[in-house]
């Protein structure tokens, strides 16, 4: 008795029709019929009764189906475990389109808890195992992705700005202020454009920079204002050099999510996703 025979038998048992079973297996119907006849001959028992409506399993067919399912599931588990062992040897590739500034803390925290891991940081989702990204609403989060955290997007203004002590402001009130845009993150650019569109005004960047660190330094020096994820700017606010203001006239949240990109979820991927849940729950 061979695995391929059990696979074809299980397909026939599921469909109770030789033709539909052959179609599901992308095989010719005579080949599947021959496999079933050979199995019946080998076992010395009929596995199906032929009826006017198709096929019906015999008692012996029910017995074989129970074992066939167990064997086929075991074969699938063996393939998955072997694939995982091969995949683990190649490390874990993460594409971070959001939360880039937090990534070093995330990786260090994971290493402290699970030991050093072979991480690769991908620049694009293609070829990566996990994607860390954000969306402007829950409806925009891809199917199958897991939302880890949502945070408010505020306007960051330097100490001494005319609105620094107001607590909240409309984007229209800031239309003439120089805006410092973060050009190094396509994901945050999309969030920024969404916020300005929902306020009904165009975004005009006076300065573009490719890192959050440079953006925050420019802002602290009074070079302009910026959109800021509340969690990432918390330390600057505590130092008093920057003030975060709620935005009155726009939808201003982003939803950070993790999405599995590779076909098979390895042990390392499960552990990393579990760590991400804990990490973001602690900063919430």
List the helices and strands and how they pair.
Layout: H1 3-15, H2 18-24, H3 29-43, E1 48-51, E2 54-57, H4 59-89, E3 92-96, H5 100-114, E4 119-122, E5 130-135, E6 146-158, E7 168-169, E8 179-182, H6 186-199, E9 205-209, H7 212-220, E10 226-229, H8 234-239, E11 242-247, E12 253-260, H9 267-283
Parallel strand pairs: 3-4, 3-5, 7-11, 8-9
Antiparallel strand pairs: 1-2, 5-12, 6-10, 6-11, 6-12
Helix pairs in contact: 1-2, 1-3, 1-4, 2-3, 5-9
Strand fraction equals 15-25%
Global outline = elongated
Q: Estimate the mean pLDDT confidence.
A: 87
Number of strands: 12
Q: How many helix segments?
A: 9
The CATH class designation of the largest domain is Alpha Beta
Radius of gyration: 29 Å
Query: Which structural class should the secondary elements be placed in?
Result: alpha/beta
Low-confidence stretches: none
Number of domains: 2
Largest sheet: 8 strands, mixed
CATH architectural label of the largest domain: 3-Layer(aba) Sandwich
The amount of helix comes to 40-55%
How far is the N terminus from the C terminus?
A: 56 Å
Would you mind describing this structure in some detail?
The chain is α/β, with parallel strands linked by helices. It is built from nine helices and twelve strands. It folds into two domains: 87 residues, Arc Repressor Mutant, subunit A (Orthogonal Bundle), CATH 1.10.10; 189 residues, D-Maltodextrin-Binding Protein, domain 2 (3-Layer(aba) Sandwich). Helices cover 45% and strands 23% of the residues. The protein is elongated and about 90 Å long. The mean pLDDT is 87.
Short structural summary:
Pfam families: HTH_1, LysR_substrate. This is LysR family transcriptional regulator. This protein is of the alpha/beta class.
